[in-house]
Amino acid sequence: MPTPAPRRVRATAAAMDLLRRLRAAHGPLMLHQSGGCCDGSAPMCYPAGEFVIGDRDVLLGMLDLRLRTGERPATDPPPEDIAQVWISGPQFTAWQHTQLVLDMVPGRGSGFSLESPEGFRFLSRGRVFEPAELAALNDIDVITGADFERGERPAPATEPQVVAEAVDACPVPGR
């Protein structure tokens, strides 16, 4: 039996809790994995539509803010319960072999990300896909900003979206 395609993005329970608090305060959200410069390489959270997605940006996934650890959606989420996660095209090319795990840690981030005044910051963790997972992902079209504008959306993934802790998605070797 072929390996099912994994999610390109997952989130910890703590990150999802923070996203739900931010959504309550600011409305629907989106995230963009920053590529460096002034923001470092932090995932940046904005009100939905406030960050301009380029035609070549890649949609890593859509986080369903209704979900808790290990849950799978029973129904499609309403738009206000989705946080799209994007990355620039060139950065995706460099990271396409890696699953991004959105986490949250204490501290103040920089830049214009919505969580900055909350005393926490989002942090990207990564897990290298297994060869069979990469092969399964090769069978799925990447959705760019241009594709999304034309109405393309990702197919549902089978693995749970929310993990209790980052180590549940990114095991540390030797532990």
Outline the secondary-structure elements:
Layout: E1 9-12, H1 13-26, E2 29-33, E3 43-47, E4 58-64, E5 82-87, H2 89-95, E6 98-106, E7 120-128, H3 131-138, H4 145-149, E8 162-163, H5 166-169
Parallel strand pairs: 1-6, 1-8, 2-5
Antiparallel strand pairs: 2-3, 4-5, 6-7
Task: Note down, in words, how this protein is organized.
The chain is an alpha/beta fold and 175 residues long. Helix content is 22%, strand content 27%. It is built from five helices and eight strands; from the N terminus they run βαββββαββααβα. The chain has helices spanning 13-26, 89-95, 131-138, 145-149, 166-169; strands at residues 9-12, 29-33, 43-47, 58-64, 82-87, 98-106, 120-128, 162-163. The strands form two sheets. Strands 7-6-1-8 form a four-stranded mixed β-sheet. It has a four-stranded mixed β-sheet with strand order 3-2-5-4. The longest helix has 14 residues, at 13-26. The two termini are 30 Å apart. The mean pLDDT is 89.
